[in-house]
Design a protein that fits this description.
The protein is α/β, with parallel strands linked by helices. 33% of the residues lie in helices and 29% in strands. The chain has 2 domains: 2-202, P-loop containing nucleotide triphosphate hydrolases (Rossmann fold, 3-Layer(aba) Sandwich), CATH 3.40.50; 213-298, 2-Layer Sandwich (Alpha-Beta Plaits).
Length: 299
């Protein structure tokens, strides 16, 4: 488990990460979202042991990561702009990481390289941005580490390749309990893979919640109320947001699905249905309750 306690990092008077408290459970996919400059990359680099915190701690199974070679060997960091050896090839990078990670799976790397149609002998500097991202992911997956830190990993990948990479993550989570931590500024990229999502804003953790819990306890309702009944009459519902378009009322309601359905039916609506919420809609609702506009924070 990764645990951040009062984690803080400053650069020349600018607080990039501001007293963050967070826990990332093993075998889960943690999504870290926020605008550019929110502190996502800095958090990942401290988690990977690249940067030393100015205040607080970040530990892996209770051990500090910075300057701890044994712990750092359990982590692989994929930056937004991956580093490759000058004039190096994919095969060169394989050899390089074999010397760092003792569990590097060379056979699997060669198979995946062929499946992704990447030439192991071709110089990486001739690769496109998407091809470089693919190579970085393959190196990270095959390193055999327990934790994989990904900074904007899906940026530059086409839709088919994004799903392929997500499938690779899912396979390693199931097969060897891999824990990916994925930073992105795009909620939609994380919706179908994350178990837990944290929202960074101006260096602080605005929200950190389990996605399944949020989906189970927040619901979207569309309804047409009978004549004489107004939104203000629905006082026994925990309504988070309201939108009215003509006679159609759209509500975001917190609570258990069965209880909400029973209460809505008791009002004898002309029309009523519950619609699944997207991750974006859930976070919009949560941040509005917290007094923020997520559309301004992220998009």
């Amino acid at each position: 488990m990764i645990k951040a306690d009062n984690l803080t990092k400053r650069f020349q008077g600018v607080t990039a990460v501001d007293h963050i408290h967070a826990e990332i459970q093993d075998g889960t996919v943690f999504g870290l979202i926020g605008t550019n400059g929110a502190g996502k990359s800095t958090f990942l680099r401290m988690a990977a042991g690249i940067l030393k915190p100015d205040e607080g701690t970040i530990t892996l199974d209770g051990e500090a990561v910075f300057e701890n070679i044994r712990v750092k060997a359990r982590c692989f960091y994929i930056p937004d702009e991956p580093y490759f050896l000058g004039n190096g090839t994919a095969d060169d990078m394989k050899t390089f990481y074999q010397g760092i990670y003792p569990n590097f799976d060379t056979d699997r790397f060669d198979r995946l390289l062929k499946s992704f149609e990447l030439d192991g002998r071709r110089k990486i500097q001739t690769f496109s941005k998407g091809m470089k991202k693919q190579l970085a992911v393959l190196l990270g997956i095959c390193a055999g580490t327990d934790y994989l830190f990904c900074d904007e990993t899906f940026d530059g990948l086409d839709p088919v390749m994004r799903q392929t990479v997500k499938s690779l993550f899912a396979n390693d989570i199931e097969e060897r309990h891999l824990t990916p931590v994925i930073a992105s500024h795009n909620l939609r990229e994380l919706e179908d893979i994350c178990d837990h999502v944290g929202l960074l804003h101006r260096g602080g953790m605005l929200l950190s919640k389990d996605l399944d819990d949020m989906k189970m306890n927040i619901h979207k309702i569309q309804c047409v109320l009978p004549a004489g009944l107004e939104r203000t009459n629905l006082q026994d519902l925990d309504i988070m947001t309201t939108e009215q378009r003509g006679s159609l009322l759209t509500l975001t309601v917190r609570g258990q699905k069965e209880e909400i359905q029973a209460r809505m039916q008791s009002y004898h609506p002309v029309f009523f249905e519950m619609i699944p919420l997207s991750l974006e809609e859930i976070f919009i609702s949560e941040t509005e309750v917290a007094g923020y506009d997520i559309k301004k924070l992220i998009f």
